[in-house]
Input
Amino acid sequence: MNALRGDLGESIVSKRPVSQDVLTFFPASFELVMFSTIISVPLAILIGALAGRRANSIFDNIVRVFSYVGIAVPTFVWAVLALYLFGYLWKVLPIMGQLSVGIRRPPVRTGMMSIDALLAGRWDAFVDHLKHMILPALCMSVGRIAQEARLLRAGIIENLKKDYIVAAISYGIPERRVMMTYLLKPSLIPMVSIMALDLASSMGGSFIIETIFNWPGFGRYGMWAMLNKDLNAVVASVMIVGIFFALFNILVDVIIAYLDPRIRVMERAS
Amino acid sequence: MKSIGSLLSEDQRESLKRNWHKFSTNPLSIVGLITVLTITFMAIFSPWIAPYPQSWGRWIDFSQASLPPSWKHPCGTDIYGRDILSRIMFGFRYDLLMAVCILAMVVPSGTFLGLVAGYYHGTWIDTVIMRITDIFLAIPSLVLALAICALLEPSLFNSMMAVSLLWWPWYSRLAYSLTSSIRNEYFVQAAELIGANPLYIMFREILPNCLSPIFTKMTLDVGWVILIGSTLSFVGLGAQEPMPALGNMVAVGSKYMPDYWWMTIFPALAIAFTILGFNLLGDGIRDLLAVEEI
Output
């Protein structure tokens, strides 16, 4: 019952209230997951839409292979490969932590460092931080991009056969317009409904990714708590991931109601 | 001596041939089938076909340590001089064993609960079972598996237990949705009217109609179970050294990553191929049995 009042007990290892630890570490994870969503959703829509529009072309086949591989390869394998590629072979992106050594940390306000840096007007820290985020966020989102692009592609191929699309094309409405106004919206529905699951599994994936990339976030904290058998912290981290899962589900229901008028009308009628 | 073909009737052979034709039209399914068969073969016969069977466990030969891939060691050796190819073959063995054990625990229990809840649709039995299912589904499986594993002693068996504990809800939900639609069919109502035992109706009337989606989901799930299992062993909560689980090998190898890349890359590729193979095979079977999206 204390959990409802925000009291999650005391961490056995850090000797601090767990809720305080969560507040410290959660924003960094949230930032990472949101950043990976911002990367992955437009990419998935772009790839899926192009592949679905030109089904069975070379590009489509490449996308199909990519989506199979992207789903099959575990996140930690991508992470290890990324460490190898960018850490040793081609050192363009930083692989550890949140900021490079020479750069001063901007004052903490929200806990999300990119926003903190912007609030403090520190462009150097902002750009450096974004660079640090790219690799973990990409590794987190490969699987999501693959899965979402695949669903969108299937949706577009299915909807292309529908009468109203055939009618729109035969009226001579420009292809771009058909695509954007008539085809994309209904085809997005299966993809959006899987997005909640994907977001939640990114939260789960952040446990692995943050440990590998040494990202001082909630996932690394949870992992560390689990390895140290810090029971209160483990319970809290599992609970918070569960709460986020539920919140994402509600959000997705709202988005689907926006995309699918039938659901809106049904709600109003009942 | 009778061949296997003559044991089947003419009709069965005919339908088998037709199904095979349908299955083999998709080259991806064939690739999946071949991958799965190869991996299964290596897993079963690893003690006999592995080039260095002693690499399985505690074996140290420093004269052979950390060798790059060569004809003698196609995937190189690890820091103790154990052949990585042999260890990958044994790794298939543990990963497949884990997947089979988990599914053997999860599928019957999940299906049974789903059947019961679907058959007593709308009663308190349904409410209790399905709400418990929802609770398990509300937390991402990886996090729950990590938490359970961490609180137990890390070992292969405990990681299997943890994954099974959170995997059954998927089957009970699948069986539930199938059962609650099938139970309104006429043949079920007829059986009820005759006064058949509920257990008889569940297992002899309803269950056979749920089998093909469940079977398809099983094939697709082998890949996912291996993925979660290898993630667990990657973070050190699954099989322990010197047991050659694939995720474990990636984790150990990644410590020596820049220079001894073969210790990580080959086990990682092995994991990817295993999951890919089972996913492709599962997709092929789904198309074959014409199961709607699971």
User: Anything to note?
Assistant: The domain at 107-294 of chain B is CATH 1.10.3720.10 (MetI-like fold).
